[in-house]
What we know:
Blueprint: H1 3-10, H2 42-50, E1 53-57, E2 62-65, E3 70-76, E4 86-90, E5 98-100, E6 105-113, E7 119-129, E8 137-142, E9 148-152
Antiparallel strand pairs: 1-9, 2-3, 2-8, 3-7, 4-9, 5-6, 5-8, 6-7
Amino acid sequence: FDAGIISNTFGNTNITTGDYLEVAQLQVELGQVATPFEHRSYGEELDLCQRYYQKFDSRGTTGTATSSLYVQTTFHLLKEMRAAPAVSVDLPNRITQYNVIDVNATFTFQQVSNISTTRFNHLMSRSSGTALEENASYSWNSTNGNYDVVAEAEL
């Protein structure tokens, strides 16, 4: 912070304890040369942010049975990420069991795999109940709430 800049820009301005300074449309520059201010829409900012962070809700998740024991879902990222993200599954309330809709079976989260800048796979395994038909599509609900899947590609 350079008090001389404020003084030179706004005249003889004294900032003391308890005062506040409102700043709008701030653009930080590297070096001595200022460039024109970049006006971006909300959509442009969202697109840029989604290159680093995306969050998915489990509601309405549908996958394909890879065997009588496993269901795999491919999550297609909304925007290509800057790098292959770290993917985590947030299981609130210790959600461990999921009911497959229209099938008498219970599933447990297993792993996330095949992570790229545009998609990743999410695997569930049958822990009890009816065997699945291979290559058939299934949807599931949590027995005690939904969970979030988060993809982060931080710097």
